[in-house]
Amino acid sequence: MATFFGSHSGFPMARLSTLYEVADGQTLHSLIVPLTVGERDCAHLHLEHLPADSLTLFDRGYPGHWLFALFAQQQRHFLMRLPCGYNAQVKAFLHSGQVEDTQLFVANHPEARLFCSEAGVDPASQIELRLIRVELANGESEVLLTSLLDREAFPAEVFAELYHRRWGIETDFRRLKQTLTLDNFSGRSVTAVKQDFHAAQLLKNLALLMQHLLQPVIEQRHKGRKLRWKVNFTQGVSRLKNTLVELLVRHCAQGLSNVLALMAKSLSAVRSGRSFARQRKRAASRGCEGYKPTR
């Protein structure tokens, strides 16, 4: 595995990348690739799987002129966070005190122009993009960059909450690693690792799909209660995984009905808006206490 994927500190290690739908938690496209393949290279591979008329959210590891130009070329839209020292334009914007500004971005550095050529976009292209300042609760500022230029349709104040929705993919990776125990591979070959990775994505997608199908029933059943309730994801996966193969290879309506009935009995309360200070009581251990693996 180390020969194919690469290694870090003597251990085989691969890069995982997913195109994640923040609205319903579904994985639209997933990659497990060697470490030598960068995050932005993965983003390029995800691009052809983007739904029409969608907005792609990126964190601050992705900015690059070739990616801006690629989105413009394909008439797609994005929102991403920029490092505060990304370039002179961003630094000047921060020092200006402006909440937002529309500017032209160009590939000034020779390396940036080379990346544009490799991506199949014009290195001389000028991309009109919108910078937005977001003030954080701790008093610091972050800078967002978007291709959505219409200030009336998309006012600056909506982007902080919109970008925050990107956090769902962090929870999704934690589900894969903790709840679905992704690193507990069934084999040590490259093929086995890839099969386990994509099987986990399929299992997760189906469990979330069933969870969304059940939500209206649960809402009706618990109408009038103080808290909102939803299917417990860990228990839902546990109910599904033992019957997954049968559900996929046979016409098994009764089996599906039984799984849905079991999932509807395993619920968790939704407590939104909670925030806790992080306290390290001991050295970090493998796993996460709040995310139990499925049985």
TrEMBL record:
GO BP annotation list: DNA transposition
Residues covered by the Transposase IS4-like domain: 10-203
Gene3D superfamilies: Transposase Inhibitor Protein From Tn5, Chain A, domain 1 (3.90.350.10)
Recorded GO MF terms: DNA binding; transposase activity
A Pfam family recorded for this sequence: DDE_Tnp_1
Keywords associated with the record: DNA recombination, DNA-binding, Transposition
InterPro entries tied to this protein: RNaseH-like_sf, Transpos_IS4, Transposase_11
Family under the similarity heading: Belongs to the transposase 11 family.
Protein name: Transposase
